[in-house]
Structures are given as C-alpha cells and as structure tokens.
Amino acid sequence: MNDDRRLQKAFCNAPRLPLSNHSKYVLISDCHRGCGNSNDNFLKNQHLYFAALEYYYKQGYTYIELGDGDELWENRSMEPIIEAHRHVFDLLAKFYREKRLYLLYGNHDIVKKSPRKAKQWFAKEFPGITFYSGIILKDREHQKDIYLTHGHQTDFLNSNLWRISRFLVRYVWGPAERLGFLDPTSAAKNNKRKRRAEEKLTDWARKKEHILITGHTHRPMIGTVDAPYCNTGSCVHPSCITCIEIRRRCMTLVKWSVDVKADRSLYVRREVLADSICIREYIV
C-alpha cells in the first residue's frame, strides 16, 4: 500500500464534525506523555500544556488530539502514564464528559486503535471512547472540509512496520538517546525524513484539494492556497508547546511558553505565531 492509499484509508469511516462560524476547535499533537521518569519528554512542558488546556476548556473549545498523545513505544502500559499526569487526564475527562474530546492515534500510540486496549486502559477516564485514525471537519456552507490525521502514513517504517520501529525505539534508540544520539528513523528528529514527510503530505493535500492538518514531524506550520498542508507542531519543543486553533472558520498557529512580567514574575504566555488564515481563502 503506497502513501496515498494509507492516507486515504485513514479517513475511511472517519467521524465528521461540524465546521461553522460557531465552531471552536483546538488541535494539539505529539504530547508524548510518559511515565514521569527521565525519558518523559512531556515532563518539561507539562505545566504549559495544562495551562493551555485549562484556557481552552474555559473558552468552550473542543479538544482534538492528533496522535502520539502518549508514549507507548517506550512504555508498555497507560497506567504509569495516567498516574504520572493525573491532573492532565482529570481535565481531559472533563472535556470528554461534555462531548468536547476527540482523540486520534499516531504511530507511537497506535495500539490505542484496539477496542480492547482502549477499554482496558481508559474505562475510568473515558468510558466507551474510540481512538480514530482520522477526523473530517465538515463545512457544509463553503464545501471546503478540513482533514485531520497524525501524518505517519507517509512513512512505511512508521506505519506498516511500526512494530519494528517500536522495537528499535524501545531497545536501541531510546537508550541511545540518553547518551546524546538521535533516532535516525524519526521524522521529528531527522531533518531529511521530516522534509520528505512534509513534501508527501503537501502533495496529497494539493492533489486531493483538501486542507490537511497533521502532527508527526513536530514542525508547526500554516499552509497556503497552493500548499494547503498545516502542522500543529508538538508539546515537546525545548521551551514551548504549539497548537492550531480553529475559530470562526479561521486557523491560527499558537505558541504557549513561559515569559517574564515587568515585576520579574513568571507567567504562561499565549502567542500567535502566524496570522489567522480563513477557510474561504483556500477556495479558488
């Protein structure tokens, strides 16, 4: 199965959520929540993430996580991850009870697609939840929908051969990373693989004439009319998290980081990285 078919398959039977002037969605990807040890890349930004999550909850946003929310290549179970980040999962559970939570799986948490695993791990926090490979935001007025998926489908090693990749991360590149070596198979850590993945995703969006939003590469971006591909970035940047807000049919790339006030006190700052671009601008 080639890249195009794997991407197309991600949207077979995908849920369709309404996209209108009243819609408020926040798209976050690649949290890589771990179990709180030295390998937990989410740990350094957990307070930024929680502050952002509280903001979006209070502002009435629906939260959509585009995969790799939890690091299940380095960890075998969700129990220690949930325990390490209990406050995060409690807040996500509030979104879920109000029907404002949708979760996709990526390559690092692909095991969540199993209904048995989903029930085993999330019966308390998200009873009855389904993890999706893709979601479509359906705009009935302008007929320009937004397609959401993780983005690993362009990488044969991280999609079809994910068990081999998981083995390498768990037993080879994970330990090597602690010694300063970067995983050459990762699109997020290898610039050549990152560019190749972005080119394939952009090409698919252009050919299908869809707006496509993914994670996976960890590089945040907002697309153009000629290249309608966007990326949320990740929650494991060195000193910030990034996401995409969708409100009034417009997409805004946002960064959350720690800043300093004039009185030298610290606060969590929301910063717009790119001017909002509205869906109608993609209609040609």
Residue stretches low in confidence (pLDDT < 50, at least 5 long) are: none
The CATH class is Alpha Beta
The beta-strand count equals: 11
Helix-strand category = alpha/beta
Q: Name the shape in a single word.
A: globular
Residue share in helix: 25-40%
> What is the CA-CA span between the terminal residues?
31 Å
How is the CATH topology named?
Answer: Purple Acid Phosphatase, chain A, domain 2
Residue share in β-strands: 15-25%
List keywords for this structure.
single chain, 284 residues, alpha/beta, 6-stranded mixed β-sheet, 7 helices, globular
Outline the fold blueprint.
Elements lengths: L2 H8 L5 E3 L5 E5 L17 H13 L3 E5 L12 H6 L1 H12 L3 E4 L10 H8 L11 E5 L7 E4 L12 H16 L13 H18 L2 E4 L14 E3 L8 E8 L2 E11 L5 E13 L6
Parallel strand pairs: 1-5, 2-3, 3-4, 6-7, 7-8
Antiparallel strand pairs: 2-9, 5-6, 9-10, 10-11
Give a concise summary.
By secondary structure, this protein is an alpha/beta fold.
What does it look like?
This protein has 284 residues and is α/β, with parallel strands linked by helices. The protein has one domain: Purple Acid Phosphatase, chain A, domain 2 (4-Layer Sandwich), CATH 3.60.21.10. Helix content is 29%, strand content 23%. It contains seven helices and eleven strands. It has helices at residues 3-10, 46-58, 79-84, 86-97, 115-122, 162-177, 191-208, and strands spanning 16-18, 24-28, 62-66, 101-104, 134-138, 146-149, 211-214, 229-231, 240-247, 250-260, 266-278. The strands form two sheets. It has a six-stranded mixed β-sheet with strand order 4-3-2-9-10-11. Strands 1-5-6-7-8 form a five-stranded mixed β-sheet. Helix 2 (46-58) runs parallel beside helix 4. The longest helix has 18 residues, at 191-208. The model has no long low-confidence stretch (mean pLDDT 91).
